[in-house]
Amino acid sequence: MAQEFTTALSPSETAAEDPNGADLPVVAFDFDGTLTVRDSFTAFLRWRAGPARYALGLARLVPALIAYVFHRDRGRIKAQAVGEFLKGVPHDRLEADARRFAETHARKLLRPDAVAAWKRWRTQRVRLVIVTASPEMTVGPFGRGLGADAVLGTQLSFDADNRVLGAFSGPNCRGPEKIVRLKEVFGPEMRLKAAYGDTSGDREMLAMAEIPGYRVFKGRP
Predict the structure, then answer these.
(1) For residues 133 and 42, what is the distance between their CA atoms, to the nearest angstrom?
(2) Which of 149, 157, 159, 187 is deepest in the core (most CB within 10 A)?
(3) 2-214: which CATH number, 3.40.50.1000, 3.90.550.10, 3.40.50.2300, 3.40.50.1970?
(4) How far apart are the first and last CA of the chain?
């Protein structure tokens, strides 16, 4: 199945290897709603938990969902979902589950026109990056399948036994944090050649890009 996923996305076509890669401009894609048709983390949690456990978890999260109406903190509600559905899961197990989810759901989630744009950019001398508010660990396998040069996302926190704590180890990778993460990895003078996003959480990234693409992808699998 992993081979089928890789072949379908053809990352081998691109491999932008360049001895001067540090000087290449960056093209950044948001993930959920931009490269995908819906929120991938919610889909992952539902898939991993199964119908009954997922319904129970949502019921337990009702107070948190009500509180969200007032505080509007996406990172907070997401962390609470991590605590409900993933707390205590070993790192290796979560990594394997994320890989299997990507292998079985890539064709159902990825927008064909977004993937086509990704492949067009890959023929140019740029670094292709996914920048997402979803956990970096769950989006990483999709990025590897696409041949991304980097996947920057919200980072989960693990305890001394390498089990999910039910919290994040840093800020929610949304809004200004996307720029922070890009500059951490590619330097303060990085050139953002193009960026694609679909929500207000991508505003800063789009404003920085020479070519901003807001909700330009409409395709469905």
Answers:
(1) 12
(2) 149
(3) 3.40.50.1000
(4) 18
What is the spatial distance between Cα 130 and Cα 33, in angstroms, rounded to a whole number?
12
Q: Which tokens belong to 29?
A: 């894609």
Question: Nearest-5° angle of CA 31, CA 32, CA 33?
Answer: 110
| CA dihedral sign of residues 5, 8, 12, 14 | negative
Judged by average pLDDT, the poorest of 3-17, 88-102, 118-132, 135-149 is: 3-17
How is the chain split into domains, by residue range?
Answer: 2-214
The pairing of strands 211-214 and 192-197 is: parallel
**DSSP string covering 13-81:** GT----TTGGGS-EEEE-IIIIIBSS-HHHHHHHHHH-HHHHHHHHHHTHHHHHHHHHH--HHHHHHHH
Are 101 and 138 spatial neighbours (Cβ–Cβ below 8 Å)? yes
Element (H, E) at 135: strand 127-135
Sequence-distant (6+) residues with CB within 8 A of 66 are: none
Phi, psi of 202 (to 5 degrees): -105, 5
Pairing type for strands 156-158 and 26-29 reads unpaired
Please choose, from the candidates 136, 145, 126, the residue with its C-alpha nearest in 3D space to the C-alpha of residue 194.
126
Q: Which two tokens stand for residue 89?
A: 């899961």
Q: What is the pLDDT of residue 65?
A: 87
For residues 126-134, give the mean pLDDT. 98
